Amino acid sequence: MISAGIDVGSLTAKCAILKDSKLLAYKIIRVTPNLEETAERVFTEALELAGLEREDIEAIVATGYGRSKVKFAERTITEITCHAKGALFFIPTARTVIDIGGQDSKVISIGDKGNVIEFAMNDKCAAGTGRFLEVMANALNVKLEELGDLAVRAERVVKISSTCTVFAESEVISHITRGEKIENIVAGIHEAIASRIAALAR
Fold it and tell me: Which of 29, 88, 154, 186 could form a cystine bridge with 114, CB 3.0-4.6 A?
């Protein structure tokens, strides 16, 4: 069976095409204000990568913030349920899932059948989310994908004490002005996110 899963999130849209649980192709694009158009585009581009036509797909499921805009999907499922099932598929012993999304963060407790037992979510503030990382990367004038490599080269961790993204950005700029190494600042940014997620998990 060939199936497609489409996740329209707050910042990116993803499409994965599978044949009998084996990944054939996937595509990730930035979300535009027109979510229906975004869903159509990510699906079309994933099909091209898989070398398939639309009629080859036997089932389409949508999830994510914009799942209701995937008009051609046969079914929609919440991202929390998808995280639980996906984690169990890849790691059968998994019992906790942490999702740092574009605009929110989630900690999900799952059972041995991939069922959601309970979850906690931070959706009131960008702190501890992908958007927080984007803002910090811009403040440091580095690419988002470079943050991980920079952090592991840190000599020490610079504390980022602000829990608000706007104030944290000002704090980062102050560290730059004082001549602090970017690597040390990035390590502090990562530690700040980890602390917020750990608090959510408790």
Answer: 88
CATH number assigned to the domain with residue range 130-201, chosen from the 4 options 1.10.760.10, 3.10.20.30, 3.30.420.40, 3.40.50.1820: 3.30.420.40
> What's the whole-model pTM score?
0.79
Q: Are 67 and 75 in contact (CB under 8 A)?
A: no
| 72 pLDDT more than 70 | yes
DSSP tag of 202: -
* CATH code for the domain defined by 2-77: 3.30.420.40
Locate the DSSP E strands across the chain. Answer: 2-8, 12-19, 22-30, 59-63, 75-76, 96-100, 105-110, 116-122
Check residue 117 and give its pLDDT: 96
pLDDT, one tens digit per residue, over 49-68 is 999 999 999 999 999 999 99
